[in-house]
Each structure stands twice: as structure tokens, then as C-alpha cells.
Amino acid sequence: MNCNVQTRIGEQFLEVPFYNASGVLCVNTNDLDKLYECNYTGAVVTKSCTLKYRSGNPEPRYWCGEYGSINSSGLPNNGFDYYAKWMIDKNTKPVFLSTSPMNKNELNIIANKIRDLDYIKNPEFNLSCPNVINKPQIGYSFDDMKNTLQMITEILGEKKFGVKLPPYFDPIHFDYASDILSYYNTLSYITCSNSIGNGLLINTETEETRIRPKNGLGGIGGKYCLPVALSNIFQFNERLPNIDIVGCGGIYNGEDVFQHILAGACAVQVGTCLYENGISTFNKLYNELIELMRKKGYKCLNEFKGKIKII
Ligand code: RRO
Fold it and tell me: Which of 103, 122, 182, 296 is paired with 211 by a 20 to 30 Å CA distance?
């Protein structure tokens, strides 16, 4: 049986439903080229950028164990113009620019640049970086989120965009967030979810934190995140039928991809597993997803997307 795993995010077409999570293998053009040239990535997203270069937080700032990772990278990136330049002429698959402006002034400048560059389509505004010292996550303040979306939409005009959200945990927060998000009809997709912010991983032997910044607190990724990501996809999919959902969190194999799609995702991003295992991750995910679909008799993603059964 021939399986088709093509999908769409907004109006953009992807041959396969997986790509990198912002932050992983996408800070410099060497790595971005590898993702772009890989036959098993459906798209590429850049590291979230600020207006200018940032070196990020002091090291060690990343650690990974059996169940997942902790990071406090602190938004190290080469600045907006670097990524915008790399994206020129990249037209064999969608390339998403991710941005996480440091303040309102930067947001204003970056959003204006995005509006003026036709080839930047569906940028991902990161409303959920947990690791910039003294900068709260926008997605956890609904006033901030509303003001930020208001500003983005006023500047971008007709141009469509997406947002990367932090994970939410209480149904009322999904209600509040959905009320705000559904108001903006140029919002074409949401990515659920960023790392679980301000977790703490400890080395029992040395009795030390695993990373140095913020007294060891950082964003948790990997296996720890799968149920949280699935719940976020599921709860937003119920509330936002007109917005595409990109899943992100805890993907290591084809079954994890299948579950994200079953919960309502149209595509998925891969972070920790890609960081640990490199670009061959995507070929493996492809083979495993196809095999599972064949076993179940599914010929395309829409046959099971969002069709989780409630018992
Ligand atoms: O750079 C980071 O520390 C970082 C960012 Br911007 C983000 O959105 N999520 C994350 O786990 N780390």
C-alpha cells in the first residue's frame, strides 16, 4: 500500500510532516543547510532571532539524560539579518523564520522588516522563551500576549504568521489563550509547545545542578514533554478549529509522531531527539511513521488527524 505523508501548515505545503524545533541545528548556516538539504525534513525553522547577535547564557547551559534535556541557552543567535539573508531563494521547501524580540522596540523593527520581505512567509513569533533572565514568557501573561499580537497584526497587515506557545496546564488557561488567539485571523498556525520552563535537573553524585544559568533552572525537553505536548495540541485543537497546530514535544519515533497527529497536529517539530541523534532522525521517523500507517491501513494523514477517540 502506498502511504502519503504530505501535509500543510497554513497555505504552505510539506512533503513530509516533520522538521526541526527552533533552537536545534539551526543557529548557523552550515546547520541550516543540512536541515534544508535533508530529504526527510518537510520544512526548516531558524533559531529564534533577536535584532542583533547574542552570545546567550554562560555554559554549561544544556544537558541531556535518559528522559530528556534541560537548556538555558539564553537566545544565542546571529541576528535577524543573518537568517533573513540565508532564507533568500530557499524555495524547494518551506523555511520559517523564528523570532523572539527582546522588547517592544525590537518587535516593531523586526515585524516591519518581515512585512517588507515578501519571501518571509508564515514567520513563527516565539512567545515562550523561558531562559532570558528577567524577561517573563509572553504566553503566560495574557495581557502581554494580546498586546504583542495586536502589534504584530497591525504591522504585518495581511501577512500570515504563527506563534510558538508555552505549555499550559489548566483548562481555563486554554480558554483564555484561545479567546485571544482566535481574534486574529491572520494567525495561521500555533506551535505547541515550547520546553517546560524552569525545571530543575540534578546530578545526584555531585549534588550539583546540571546547568549553570538561573541557579540551574531551565527549559525541559524530550520524553518528559510528550504527554504535555499531546494535551496542548488536543486542547487547542478543540478550541481553535481554524488554526493549524504544529506539535512539538517528546518525539523520538514514528509512534510519537502518529500520536501528535491523532491529537490534532498537522506537522511536528523535533528538538531533543534531533540534538542527540542528528539529522538521520528524520529518515528514521519517516520509516517508522509509514510502517505504522501501513499496519493500521491509513493512506494519508487526514484519515487520522485529530481523530483521537475518547473512551
Ligand atoms: O534560547 C533558549 O534558551 C531557548 C528558547 Br529562545 C526557547 O524558546 N526555548 C528554549 O527551550 N530555549
Answer: 103
Beta pairing, strands 267-270 & 244-248: parallel
Segment-wise mean pLDDT, segments of 10 residues, the chain, 311 residues: 93 98 98 98 98 98 98 98 98 98 98 98 97 94 98 98 98 98 98 98 98 98 99 98 98 98 99 98 98 98 98 98
Q: Which atom of ligand 1 has the smallest separation from the CA of 57?
A: 3
Task: Point out the catalytic residue in the list 38, 49, 129, 192.
Answer: 129
How many whole angstroms from 310 Cα to the centroid of ligand 1?
A: 33
Q: Is 129 a catalytic residue?
A: yes
